[in-house]
Amino acid sequence: MCGIVGYIGEKEAYPILIKGLARLEYRGYDSAGVAMLEDGEISLFKTKGKVSDLTDKVNGHKPESTIGIGHTRWATHGPPNDVNAHPHTSNSGNLVIIHNGIIENYDALKKALTEKGYTFQSDTDTEVLINLIEEVKTSQNVPLAEAVRMALHQVIGAYAIAILEKDNPDVIVAARKGSPLVVGVGDGEFFLASDASPFLEFTRNAVYLEDGEIAILRRGEKLQVKTIENDEIEPYIHELQMNLEAIEKGGYEHFMLKEIFEQPKSIYDTLRGRLLPDQQLIVMSGVEEYAQKMLNAERFIFIACGTSWHAGLVAEYIFEEYLRIPVEVEYASEFRYRNPVVSEKDVVFAISQSGETADTLAAIELAKSKGATIFGICNVVGSSIARASDAGAYTHAGPEIGVASTKAFTAQVSVLTLIALKLAQKKGTLPVKRFVDLCYELEGISAKVEKALQTDALTEKIAAEFKNSRNFLYLGRGFNFPVALEGALKLKEISYIHAEGYPAAEMKHGPIALIDEEMPVVVIATKGPNFEKVKSNIQEVKARKGRIIAIVTEGDTEIKDMADYTIEVPEVSQSLSPIVNTIPLQLLSYHIAVMRGCNVDQPRNLAKSVTVE
Ligand code: G6P
To answer: Is 2 among the catalytic positions?
Structure first.
């Protein structure tokens, strides 16, 4: 949800900003812009479209400057166009801002500023904010950092902002509340970004700003951080562990494909050091610390959005099966607004790849206020949700850049399976032999995922046949019902084909009416207790001339006779099967999207990290 970047130091700012914006483009990509200070003037370039459109626009005018800010946008206020693109300047032309977030009281602020004579070019809340800062700065006659601090007291909403001042080429002022912001501390230079990826090749030292903090980046001086209450903070410098290859495509055509193929490794990384079957041991310090609380919980509530919500649904089946504790799975956006019944006896699992999703964060705050214990399952280390949780477990899937989530999903399911197994062992709800068998099977799941990836060529062939379909139905039962939902979501997100995921038996209560010879129906029909039932569901589709693409267990002969296509995956116990069965569905969506000429890594209207509600 909007990416922001900044640089101040000895180097040329423009190439750093552009490269940084390209790395942050997963956050939003409907318009882009940069502002730099050059010879006492603000050079500003912005355009609707992607970062590549911006570089085309700048072409030939490249500003020579060692200080600048840049922005890639996911529109909230006002349509994506050149005027609404960031950066935005104040009325006097002295200040320029980039912003990620939403100023909720912008309308009231705008009215008050209009009465004072301010005018606005764009529809954005951001332009209101920069003029508010200008108003405070001129009326109070204070330096920029102080004006920002004072102005933010009047602001309701979420923001990560960075501001330049025309007459002061030696400072960038930044602030955060609710939207991520990290300062890279180099040798005589500072970087600023929504995540650390723009400055990985320059410095490993990063300061993650907390909500309500303001950073003052002065050329050649120490980083100054203060709160909006004006308390000085000693910045804590993290050493980044991420490597550069992890955020590059590594020879793949798209990040999504790279991330799909990374899954054997990402799952292995998720389990590494935690799952020790030989010792009948699962090592997870966060779970250990809260184990009693969890085992005494009346229920678990899983809160998430999008694909992470689907991981929560899979985990519901796993937790209830292994642990016999009731689980509820909630969309964070619904939970936070429906006065939920939550108490200190509940344990809330917040599941989020980015760790920044605004609705999930707000749901956590609500659950906390009612006394629940919060356990975070995040991929991004140090993210807001990770920090807002009482304890947690990282998924360790590595950076996920493709907007459609793939490896984060399988890592989330893997880590949740580990937690369920660990708690079940403590509670004694799984016979020892079953516990040990499941541990060994989980240890071997990466190899099975590797094998499932061999369906790539077949899914490409199937994609060629169905790429022009207008609708798809995805069916699954039990543990694989959420896999059907996730398969349908992947297809919708990146190929813009309408798709619905349904519990296979529920089909006859509605979706069956849609089935005709045009309708591809993807059925997860791997071996398991529901196999015979799913077979009957396939017959029901066939009787109405639907076209069946079935995910089946290796060596299956029964479904082959009924389905138009079968995709074989290795045999796995049903509780672990979602991790394997989801692989061909990811590949199918990917190939269909590529064949339809869609931008798989940056699908229209979507963003990777949704930091606004
Ligand atoms: C966006 C992304 C999805 C993701 C969802 C939740 O919609 O496009 O891929 O599943 O947000 O994000 P989170 O980071 O909380 O998992």
So the answer is: yes
**Structure token digits, residue 293:** 């609380």
Most confident of 50-64, 72-86, 431-445, 498-512: 431-445
| Angstrom distance (rounded) from CA 362 to CA 102 | 14
Looking at residue 59, its pLDDT comes to 83
The dihedral sign for the CA sequence 406, 409, 415, 417 = negative
- Does the beta carbon of 403 lie inside 6 Å of ligand 1? yes
Residues 359-410 pLDDT 10s: 999 999 999 999 999 999 999 988 889 999 999 999 999 999 999 999 999 9
Measured CA angle at 394 (ends 393, 399), to 5 deg: 170
Mean pLDDT of 35-58: 92
Residue (of 261, 211, 250) closest to 233 by Cα position: 211
| Residue 64: exposure state from Cβ atoms within 10 A (0-12, 13-18, ≥19) | exposed
pLDDT band at 82 (very low <50, low <70, confident <90, very high): confident
Q: Is 379 in the pocket of ligand 1 (CB under 6 A)?
A: no
Give yes or no: 560 in active site: no
Q: Whose CA is nearest to atom 2 of ligand 1?
A: 608
pTM: 0.85
Q: What is the DSSP string of 59-98?
A: TT-----SEEEEEEE--SSS-SSTTTSSPEE-TTSSEEEE
In sign, the C-alpha dihedral spanning 247, 250, 256, 259 is negative
Tell me the two tokens of residue 454. 């061999």
